[in-house]
Amino acid sequence: MSLLIKGADLLGAGRQDLLISDGVITEIGSLNTAGMRAVDQTIDANGLVALPGLVDIHTHLREPGREDAETIASGSAAAAIGGFTAVLAMANTSPVTDTAEAAERILDLGRLSGLVDVQPVGAVTKGLAGEELAELGLMARSRARVRVFSDDGRCVADARVMRRALEYIRAFGGVVSEHAQDPKLADNKACCHEGELSGRLGLPGWPSVAEEVIVARDVMLARHTGSRVHIAHVSTAGSVEVIRWAKAQGISVTAEATPHHLMLTTDLLAGYDPTFKVNPPLRPIEDVEALRDALADGTIDAVATDHAPHARHDKEHTFDNAAFGMLGLETALSVISDVMVGSGRLDWAGVARVMSVQPARIAGLAGHGRPIAVGEPGNLTLVDPSAVVTVDREASVSLSRNNPWHGRRLTGSVQATLLRGVPTVLKGALV
Q1: Backbone angles phi, psi at 356, to 5 degrees
Q2: For 156-171, what is each residue's pLDDT tens digit?
Q3: Same domain assignment for residues 13 and 129
Q4: Range 252-280 average pLDDT
Q5: Which residues, including other chains, have CB under 8 Å from residue 145's CB and lie 6 or more apart?
Q6: Helix (H) or strand (E) holding 423
Q7: Are strands 302-303 and 253-257 parallel, antiparallel or unpaired?
Q8: Once rounded to an integer, what is the mean pLDDT over residues 192-211?
C-alpha cells in the first residue's frame, strides 16, 4: 500500500509531503504528484502538525477479567482515536500478567485489534502480592519480549523484593515501573490529598510523603544495583526534587506524569464527584506547577495516561467507596496541547519528545518514537493545533464513562493516526 500525506508541518522543517510505501516513509519534500506513480490514498494535511505516533507506557485495558469496563479491542480503539500507535498494557488484570503465557496472550489479543501495538507489562511479583518475584526472565524471553515490569496499583513495599527485582532485570535491560505509595503512610482507605480540604470534607488523607519516601528509596536501590527504575504517575513537588537530584547523580531513573496530574487540582473534590478519585490523588496547584516545569525541563521524561476505565457500578458510589481511576487515552494530546503548548512550556517538537520519543525509549519499542525521516516506519499522528474540542463522555469509544474532562473545551485535536502507513483514524474518527 502507498499513501501520500500532502503539506504537513514537520516540526520546524516547514510544510512537506510524505510518501509512505509498504509501511515505510520513502520520500519527503515538495513531491511532484504529476510524475509520481499512482498512490492508493492521499491525505490533505494542510494546517496539520505531523508527530511520530504517540506511545503510552501506562494503560489499563482490563482484559482479561473485567471486560465490562474495557477490552483490549475497545481500549485499542480509544488509543488510536487519541493518536497512539503503541500502548503498554498494565499487569493488574485477572488473572495477573505474571507468567510468559499470560504476557503472550495479551500480545496476541492486541494483534487481533490491529489498531495499535499492544505491549504487555509484566508483574514484578506473583499475583501482585509483593512477596515472590514473578517469571521475570521467562516473560523477557517469551514472544512478548517483556521489558517493563510493574505491580501498578500496588507498591512493591518490601525493599528486599524491590532490590531483587532490580538485580534480576538488569541482566536483560529491563525496567521496574514503581507505583510509589508507602502503605503504612497511605493505606487503601486513603482517597484524597492530605491537607485542609481532606479534613474539611472528612476524607481519609493521602500525604505527599507517602509517595516521596518510596521514590527516594527506589532511586537509591537503582544506584545500589546499577539497574533501571521508572517512577509512575509522579504527583508531588517533593518527588520532582528527588528525581532531579537522582538524575544529577547519574542514577538510572526515568519518570512520567499523567495529563490529569498536569491539569487538575484537588479543589475539584469539593463536590465529592467520584470521577475525580484517582491514585495517586489530585494535588494542590503548587504540585501541579512543579510537574509542569519538570516535564518542560526534562526531569520528568514522559507523559503517560494511566487510562483506568471502570464500569459504572464500580465508580458511581460515595467518594470514599468508589474505584480509583480516570479515562485518558482519547484526550491526552489535547490536554498536553492546552497545558504545555498553550502556556509556552513546550513546542510541538517537545510534545513529540514526551509523548512519543521518550516513552518508546523507556519501553524499548524499537519501531516507535522514531524520527520522521526516509526509511523510518510510517507510525504517525496528524494534529490540528488550533482545533477547539468540547469533550463529551458519551462520544467515547471506551466502554467506560469515568471521564474527568467531560464538558471541558480543549485546544488541539488528533485528526489522523497511521500505524505502519495504514490509517486507523481519519478526520478524527476510526477508519
Answers
A1: -140, -60
A2: 999 999 999 999 999 9
A3: no
A4: 98
A5: none
A6: strand 422-426
A7: parallel
A8: 97
pLDDT (mean) for 336-356: 98
Specify the pLDDT at position 35: 58
Residues paired with 176 in a beta bridge = 149, 229
Residue that has been written with the C-alpha cell 529491563 in this structure: 174
Tell whether 10 and 119 lie within a shared domain: no
Domain boundary among 318, 337, 363: 363
Claim to verify: residue 247 and residue 330 sit in the same structural domain: yes
Q: What is the pLDDT of residue 4?
A: 96
Which of the residues 98, 306, 314, 384 is marked catalytic?
A: 306
Q: Please state, rounded to an integer, the average pLDDT across all residues of the chain.
A: 97
pLDDT of residue 1: 85
Q: Which of 336, 363, 390 finishes a domain?
A: 363
Sign (positive/negative) of CA torsion 290, 296, 300, 302? positive
* The pLDDT of residue 31 is above 90: no
CB 119 within 8 A of CB 143: no
Q: Are residues 403 and 272 in the same domain?
A: no
As a whole number of angstroms, the distance between CA 102 and CA 297 comes to: 38
Confidence grade of residue 37 (pLDDT, cut at 50, 70, 90): confident
Mean pLDDT of 361-382: 97
Per-residue confidence (pLDDT) for residue 11, from 0 to 100: 87
The answer to whether 110 touches 83, Cβ cutoff 8 Å, is: no
306 is catalytic: yes
SS3 422: strand
Other CB atoms within 10 Å distance of the CB of residue 397: 18
- In terms of residue numbers, what domain contains 38? 2-49+376-430
173 and 315 inside one domain? yes
Instruction: Let me know if residue 282 belongs to a domain.
Output: yes
What distance in Å separates the CA atoms of residue 269 and residue 203, rounded to the nearest whole number? 10
Tell me what the mean pLDDT of segment 345-361 comes to.
Answer: 98
**Is 370 inside any structural domain?**
no
- Percentage of the chain beyond pLDDT 90 is 96
Residues 39, 105 within the same domain: no
CATH number for the domain harbouring residue 7: 2.30.40.10
CATH of the domain at 139: 3.20.20.140
Number of structural domains the chain divides into = 2
- pTM, full prediction: 0.97
In a domain, 17, yes or no: yes
20 and 143 both lie in a single domain: no
pLDDT at 34: 62
- The half-sphere exposure of 248 on its side-chain side, counting CA atoms within 13 A, is 6
Number of H helices, E strands in the chain: 13, 19
- Asked whether residue 94 falls in the same domain as residue 157, the answer is yes
Residue with cell 493516526: 417
Q: What are phi and psi of 265, to 5 degrees?
A: -125, 165
**Residue 22, in any domain of the structure:** yes
